[in-house]
Amino acid sequence: MKWKCLLVDDEPLAIEVLQTHIESVEQLEVVGTCNSAFKAMEFLKDNQVDLIFLDIQMPKLTGTSFVKTLQSPPKVIFTTAFKEYAADAFELDAVDYLLKPISLERFLRAINKLPNINISETGANTESTDSISGFTYFRADRKMIKLFYDEILYIESIKDYIKIYRDGNNPILVKQTISSTEDMLPKNLFLRIHRSFIVSLKKITAYTYYDVEIGKIEIPVGRLYKSQLKKLTHIKQKEDQ
Known about the structure:
The protein starts with a strand and ends with a helix. It has helices at 12-22, 37-46, 63-69, 86-91, 104-111, 178-184, 228-240; strands spanning 3-8, 28-34, 51-55, 75-80, 96-99, 135-140, 143-148, 152-158, 161-166, 169-174, 190-194, 197-200, 206-207, 211-214, 217-220. The longest helix is centred in the C-terminal third of the chain and has 13 residues, at 228-240. It has 2 domains: 3-111, Response regulator (Rossmann fold, 3-Layer(aba) Sandwich); 147-240, CATH 2.40.50.1020. It is built from 7 helices and 15 strands. 26% of the residues lie in helices and 32% in strands. It is of the alpha/beta class. A 5-stranded parallel β-sheet has the order 2-1-3-4-5. Strands 10-9-8-12-11 form a 5-stranded antiparallel β-sheet.
């Protein structure tokens, strides 16, 4: 059985992210996309849908209000950039509540909550996250920005924001925590070396017990992250073999 999915979001890039993730799971297929709750309502009149990926904050009718209008709603996974709607979403028996930007790993954890589905990230049929040619999306300047992993030099935490430093481009300021960023990046490409810094393993040009160098930039290694240097040493030795 394949789960027939409807994607509802007023941001085209958010739809694109979901479509990319869904392509990684054989048990899922996209049967429609809508940019408003009203269009989704019309779509459901004539089409069978098993699962809706539903944005919450949309013009005229919110995602949560839309679900309340349905007599027999399909399974719903809410997708949003705002944490404050979580309680409302779960009161509506949502399968899960995904905060944008949605990583593949977090997406798969949500999908695993569906009946008769059990899939790991490594088993997903998608552009492999262990490839430097992979990418992810970050929400900045009211849009979803696609960043390839090989663009990223390092990431710095600044209070409630992160600053993503890129190769050959200006840095990007994103409102999200460095811990959530660490979770969404592939572990074999990026390493957290400080409570305020994540570095690209491919971009490291030198390192000591106290700092990591990326070109002329010196980034400190935090006291609680010294053990990460063992992982870094192992990776570098493997690269040299």
